Each structure stands twice: as C-alpha cells, then as structure tokens.
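In the previous chapter we treated chains in isolation. Here, by contrast, the input contains two separate entities that must be folded as one system, with a combined length of 490 residues.
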Amino acid sequence: MEMSDKLIQVKDLKKHYNKGVIKALDGVTIDVNKGEVMVVIGPSGSGKSTFLRSLNLLEEPTSGEIIFDGVDITKKKYMNAEGKMVKLSIDEHRQKMGMVFQHFNLFPHMTILKNMTLAPIKVKHMDKEEAEKKAMALLERVGLADRADAYPIQLSGGQKQRVAIVRALMMEPEVMLFDEPTSALDPEMVGEVLEVMKELAQSGMTMVVVTHEMGFAREVGQRIIFMADGKIVEEGTPVDIFQNPQSPRLKDFLNKVL
Amino acid sequence: MFSAAGFAKTWQYIDLFKQGVITTISLSFLTVIFGFFIALVLALLKKSKVHPFDYLATAYIEIFRATPMLVQIFVIYYIVFAKVNVPAFKLFGFIRFERFLPGVVALAMNSGAYLAEIIRSGIQSIDYGQTEAARSLGMTKFQSFKEIVLPQAIKNILPAIANEFVTIIKESSICYTIGVQEIMYAVSSTKGATYRIAEPLVIATLVYFCLTFPTSKIIAYFERRMSRGDVR
C-alpha cells in the first residue's frame, strides 16, 4: 500500500493515568487508510473509546505519535513546507475530523439549523446563506429537513444522532469518528442511525467506528480491530474476526456478545 | 408620625430624591457591568487551575464574601483612594465623581465576588460533552466557551443573577456613608432640613421598590425567552 493511502498513522500510542498505574492505551500502532471503514470492538474498559478520542486529541496521549495529513498532531510544533518549525493548530486539524458522540451533544440552546451552521460560519467563515443551503441539503439527505427550526429537545434520540452526523459533515471532514453512536438509543432507533452511517460508508467516507453493533461491524466494516486491556489484540476482515478468531480473548468476547 | 404638612415640607426637597434616583441607577448600572466582568475573570481564573492565579481568585472571593460591605467601602474610600487623585468634577452636574468612583469600585468588587461563584457554578453545570462537541467541530477554546458554554450557563444562573442585580440596587445605599448623593443621602439631607424622618423614609422605600420590582420582572421576561429550547 502506498504512503498516500494512509490518512492517519498511529504509532505506539499510550495513555496512562495515575502515573502509569492505569494504562488505558498501552502501545497502539495502526494506520487508517483513506476511504476505509474501520470498526473497533472490544469489552468495556478495553481502551477503544480512549483510542478514538485520542485521534482528534480530545484525550491527550501520554506518548506516541498520531500522524494526520503528514503532521504529528501530538506535538506542539511541526515543520512546514519551507522547513520552518511552526506552531500546530489543533483546531485546524479537528475541522478535518468529524466526531459523533454517544450522547449526541447537540447544542440545546440552538435550533437544528443553527447547530449545523454555527461552526462553518464561525470557523470557516462561510456565508450564512450558503451554510443554511448546505445544511438544508444535508438534512434532506437524512430525512429531517422539516425539523430544521426545531430545538434538539423536540427530537427523538435517533433524529438527534442523525443531526449530529450531518452537523459533523458540514465541515467536510476527511474522516468521521464515531464513539458508540447507537449505545444511548432505544433499540427501535438504532436502525435509522446505522442506515445513515452505511450510506456514508458507501459514499466513500473514511470512518473509524467504535461500536457494540456486531451486525454493523460485520456488514459495513472493512477492517475490524479487536482491543482489550489498551492493546490491539487482533485485526482483520470481518470474516477473519467473526468466523475465524484466533486469540482466546476474542473468542471469549464473541461468545458473550453474539 | 406622618402628616400632610410633613409630606408638603419633604416635597420641597423632591429634587434631592430625583438626583438620588439618578445616582442610585448610575451606581447600580456601572456596578452590574464592572461586577460582571470582574466575576467572569475571577470565575475563569478559579477554574483555570493555573497557579497562582486560581489561588488568588479564590482568596479574593473568600475575603470579599467574609467581610462586611461597610468595612470594604471604608477601606476602599479612606485607604485605597486616599492615594489616588480622582478628578473632582460633577457627573450630570450633581454627582461628585471623587466620591462616586470609589463607591462604584467598592460595589463592583464586592458583587464581583458573589457573581463569580454564581457564574462558576453555572459553567460547571454544563456537560463537558458540549465543549467536546464544539472543539471537535474545530472551534477554538474561546469560541466554544462564548458560543456554547456561556449562553447555557447564563440561562441556568439567570434567577441567581437577577437576585444579585436587585441586591446591588439595595446595597448601593451603603455609598451614603462615603457621601455619595444617592437616595438615602436625600433622606438624610431632607431630615436635617425639615426635622421630618418618617415622610422621607416612606418616599425612599417606594422609590427603591419601584426600582427593584421592575428589574426582577424584566429579567424574568428574558429568562422565559432564553428557555425556548426547553419545551417540547
């Protein structure tokens, strides 16, 4: 595989708490390739959410490298094209990494439309009219155009998460990170959110998804990462992972969840 | 105790009360604005966990909350402003600025300490996921605070802030002790000139009520407006 296909390179990433007593991440090395759907599974406390949240530095790693767009974003400075050391702006990198949370985190004091247009207007200085037009098109795509003027509290969980996904898409990210996007939903709403994610995957978006939805992992995931105790224990295609698991940890995990 | 003649006599000094109202409103208005900014800075410093600024903010808040307002205003007027050369002119032609300014400073520093705790609790009441969502969209620390956290925090603490604003209007009467010609100063002057005390006090009571009551009503209106996102 060529260098240019790697969107994010993670090298020996560690996240320790209490001076190393708790190792949430204990040396994770993995590449995220352009256009792939990577699904991270594992028991709770395995470090999968910490791993995902480290990718856009919502968690600051203790050590290791995260190379995104050719820049190690864990460092305060980087070398630019002219060979000068310049200050790294994490805000600029975060614009290119959309994130969807377990608890939606919509802004409750703003309408759906405002939720979506705020960041493009404030951060990208997009024209208000253009931003609204774009937001309406995205809402149309997820079947929520008629709720543009509603407030988040007026929506169901599934609707909120669909809005959260298109809110992230407004910034035209290069990669979308999903942190257990269906875990807080009532069972009957899981499907509508997974449907949006599936469509997004088919459109060629690079996705890293932490989830407990094994059906989704198997159907949409192109590469499955199994994590336990802060480490990647096994990785492979859905067929490798689900039909031919190697490690006892993974076999044990699959026995419990399937 | 009360008499028509007493009110008639007091009425001759009604201009003092009118000036007193303007002074009280000016004092309270400036106190609210400066107090709010002092409070915002204190709350952010205290939350920042950057030593020694967080400790200094805590010490400031505790000292101002644990000592009497009367002591604070005397310290600021007689000790701090003893060395400061405040230009002696009259605001609106009757407010003596060299007394008015120390009054505003004392009131603002005092209410800043109280408001800081209110604002801090408001900021803490906002789920950290809100900040994370804003930051993950590429917004800066300042943008996410200003656009996302602060508006929600203020909404949550609006009743407490309204209470503090009303308190400021009432507490501004303490500036009478350093010779600021607010409403209680008008009472005192009228008493000295007419030997009547009940009638001037009745007028002062009514005036204070007419200032504080609408203030809390106006804030209640904004509270309703800001909670539009709360109803299904």
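Chain A has nine helices and twelve strands. Chain A has a mean pLDDT of 93. Compare these points with the single-chain example from earlier in the chapter.
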